Fold this sequence. Notes:
alpha/beta, six-stranded antiparallel sheet, six-stranded mixed sheet
Amino acid sequence: MADKNIVVIGAGVAGLTTALLLSRIPGYKIVVIAKHMPGDYDIEYASPWAGANYMPRAKDQGSATANWFAELLSPSPWFKNVVPGFRTLPKEDLRPGFDSATSFTSFKRAVLNHILDATDRSVMPAKVDLVVNCTGLMASKLGGVEDKTVIPARGQIVVVRNDAGKMIDVSGTDDGETEACYVMTRAAGGGTILGGSYQQGDWNPQVDPNLAVRIMKRAVQMCPQLTDGEGIEKLDIIRHAVGLRPVRAGGTRIEKEKIGDTWVVHNYGAGGAGYQSSYGCAQDAVKLVSDALGRQARL
């Protein structure tokens, strides 16, 4: 069978997980198109902590790091037939200290007004066979979709260096039904998240300083080991942040439809459960992709 070109719109956890699973199926060439990408911080981007990278082969081969990334460092990696434009760079083009390097396309930064813009030759030079819509909250505004059942649930957090050593979450607070209390320590030095709020329909990107104080006080009261029994003044703050969860009435939308002459598979609207449900939702989306393209999904 001829290769199929698939565009995934959205580089949040839903889009990246779906792209990952699609890349494991022979004959699928995947490109991720997104306005916001890992490393960006924006009110529209609900997965600012998600990340993915490829590493060229360099002088550190044989080291623990190189062994960890052995396949990615290979001059003939598994993904060479998945990503568009894969090529090995000539030795004379390499900077000193590099034995070899490869070049390919995996992400494109773009702002789409309509979902079918992803098939335009100015965005994707090759013919697109299918589009996967993982636009999250912006599915409410994207032309051709405009799902008005998707609304933001504003979440405000405080990221600190203090280590709680655990994850704690309670069902409510005395400060109102739109506020929450949770402490989540991230792995690998990612800090600790203190939250939070769940303000449906609120698009406000600005940090509320009064809410921030309430968040910190609740967290320290619930988890005293954060500050060794002292007050919020002992919190080592990395940043204050606001994110918008993509909440959809009726739950996550995972379905396929024909828009114009193009098959589209939707995977968006997981709300605050994006990370924990990303793999299962992506598996269902991949099955729909394979069904639309008349292929067998092998996950």
